[in-house]
Amino acid sequence: MEICKRLEDHLPTQPKVFNMKKTLFFLLLGILFYGTGQTYAQTKQPSVDQQFIERVASRVAQMKLVARRGVVGTVTAVSDTQITLSDLDGNTRFIDVDELTKFSPPGNGSNVKNYGISDISKGDTLGILGLFNKESDRILARFVDTEPIEMSFYGTVSAKDDNLFVLTIHDESGKDTKVNVDTGTKMYSFTKGGGMVKSGFSKIAIGERILAKGNFDLKDKSLLDANRLFLLPEITQTQQVTPTLTPAQ
């Protein structure tokens, strides 16, 4: 009996056996968790990469459809959201505008902030810069510039307002055009003996032949703002001529 008791004292107690099992359990659990986590990461990563590739491919496809494009043409129709142009080659161009489209008036553009699509009219010449969609064949305008096109009118001075500095030119077809003269208007008089010399508004006479060059006023499309005037006092009303003059430097 005493020998048996001594042997039992040397045997491990039950709690020690339990602690060893507990340690083995957590060790196996850790190995299992680590292996599962690694497998999860390996299975999820290709999915993330695939989504990234698809986004890049979609973006590239969009970029291929859209390109920057510029066009110059004459307005044939205009609405709140669209401008229709006839370009220099006679092709019809459809221009879309939105809240990001910026409009610029002709010249220096002193009234840029208040200038918009409501100021665009049929017959205006515009320069458009925007995003061209190859699929729809339309341009989303980012910048719309009104290009000043110089017009020429040749005829007889039929009326003259010395207070407002406005002339009325009566042309060969019977049409009357009002011409505004201001401090920036350059005036010349041409004679065979004297050639081209500078002149002034006070020297313009009713019934005199005149050539006016300028741009139509933005607010009053019937009024020509004269850039240059050429007085031709030696040409009578019965002479059918269309002069081409270049002022002396």
Helix and strand topology:
Layout: H1 2-10, H2 14-65, E1 66-78, E2 82-87, E3 92-96, E4 102-104, E5 125-133, E6 138-146, E7 151-161, E8 166-170, E9 176-180, E10 186-191, E11 195-198, E12 209-216, E13 223-232
Parallel strand pairs: 3-6, 4-6, 9-13, 10-13
Antiparallel strand pairs: 1-2, 1-5, 2-3, 5-6, 7-8, 7-12, 8-9, 10-11, 12-13
- How many domains? The number is 3
The amount of beta strand, in percent, is 35-45%
Helices and strands, in N-to-C order?
HHEEEEEEEEEEEEE
Assign the CATH architecture of the largest domain. Beta Barrel
Biggest beta-sheet profile: 5 strands, mixed, barrel
Distance between the termini: 140 Å
Read across the widest sheet, the strand sequence of neighbours is 1-2-3-6-5
Structural class: alpha+beta
